Structures are given as C-alpha cells and as structure tokens.
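Narrative of accomplishments. A recurring question from our advisory board has been how the design workflow behaves on a single, concrete structure rather than in aggregate. To address it, we present the structure tokens for one chain from the evaluation set, followed by the sequence designed for it. No filtering or post-editing was applied between the two.
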C-alpha cells in the first residue's frame, strides 16, 4: 500500500482505490470511484444542478444578458463594417458613440453622487 501524500487532508479523496475495496465490491467499484472523482463528472453534476434549477429570475436574467450580448456583438460588427466600407462616415459614427458613452457616464456618476449625498454617507 502506498503512503498518502503529505498535503492530503481528511477530506481529500485517495488517488487510488484500495485493493480490499476492489476485492469486496468488485471491479465496478474502481471504475465508479474514479468516475466520481473525475473533473468531468463534477462538472456534469454542477451543470445538471444549474440547468435543473427552477429559479425563474435566474433564467430571465440569463436570457436578457444573452440577448443584450447578441445585440452588442451585432452592433459592433455593423460598426466595424461601416468603418471598413466608408471610413470617414464610420469613424465619425464611432466618435459620436464614444462621446455619447462618456456623456452618459458623467451623468450617471452625478446622479449616483447626488443619491449618496441625500441618503447616508458613501461606504468606502
């Protein structure tokens, strides 16, 4: 019998199946233990648990984020294509979008500071 590694704690599963367990439970025991210790099995179990969830808010948020991601990718692709076809018009469109993003950031920062100033002091 091989000695256990030094870093193995009480919760660490063994690297191999002891022969007395194989003798007692048969060859399927070795295969079953190795399968349950594998990363693929743990990943599949986690996926089954996540997909089997009945939390409707989780699925709704997932769908919204996914569709906004699709819209963003399509928008960026269209913008890149516009820059490729008409560089002057495409770059002016890109510049106006960047200015709009900066403006919305500063407005959002002002609103956030105003809300924090009205209520409690900001938590840092």
């Amino acid at each position: 019998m091989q000695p256990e590694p030094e870093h193995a704690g009480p919760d660490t599963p063994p690297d191999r199946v002891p022969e007395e367990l194989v003798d007692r439970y048969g060859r399927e025991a070795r295969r079953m233990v190795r399968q349950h210790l594998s990363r693929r099995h743990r990943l599949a179990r986690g996926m089954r648990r996540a997909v089997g969830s009945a939390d409707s808010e989780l699925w709704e948020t997932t769908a919204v984020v996914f569709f906004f991601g699709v819209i963003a990718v399509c928008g960026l692709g269209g913008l890149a294509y516009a820059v490729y076809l008409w560089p002057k018009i495409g770059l002016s469109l890109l510049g106006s979008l960047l200015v709009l993003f900066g403006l919305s950031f500063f407005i959002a920062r002002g609103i956030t500071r105003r809300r924090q100033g009205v209520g409690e002091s900001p938590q840092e």
